[in-house]
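Priority: medium. Attachment 1 of 2:
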């Protein structure tokens, strides 16, 4: 299965295990390990992360995106609440005849019931002005025909 023979591997491991390092090299190796352990304790994870952060342009871009997004959310959600006013309906001046059509009176009823219909009728009467108590048929026909 493998290219190496298991007996050969064991023989080489035994040869390696018989090698003893010199006391000076052992001391140097232990000193390096001690220094690495001490520097690890002093080097806090945040400081190491900060160094990587300062060097990486992608991290700077990501941090900028987070800051911009946070400011955007703050502006959108913490601004004063504005009263939303319904759009104003422009009142178009109509003739009294237009005000008293069935369609116009029906629209007035849907807007505000019978009180709105009464307002519209009152407005039509105000536009027409005062009327005499009596009117002849000829005057009625001339007014009806618009002459």
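Attachment 2 of 2:
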């Amino acid at each position: 299965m493998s290219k190496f023979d298991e007996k050969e591997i064991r023989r080489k491991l035994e040869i390696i295990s018989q090698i003893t390092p010199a006391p000076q090299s052992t001391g140097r190796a232990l000193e390096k390990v001690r220094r690495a352990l001490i520097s690890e304790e002093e080097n806090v994870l945040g400081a190491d992360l900060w160094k990587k952060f300062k060097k990486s342009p992608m991290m700077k871009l990501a941090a900028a995106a987070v800051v911009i997004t946070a400011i955007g959310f703050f502006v959108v959600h913490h601004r004063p609440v504005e009263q939303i006013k319904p759009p104003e309906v422009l009142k178009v001046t109509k003739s009294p005849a237009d005000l008293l059509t069935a369609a116009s009176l029906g629209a007035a009823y849907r807007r505000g019931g019978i009180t709105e219909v009464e307002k519209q009728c009152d407005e039509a009467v105000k536009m027409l002005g005062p009327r005499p108590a009596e009117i002849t048929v000829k005057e009625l026909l001339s007014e009806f025909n618009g002459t």
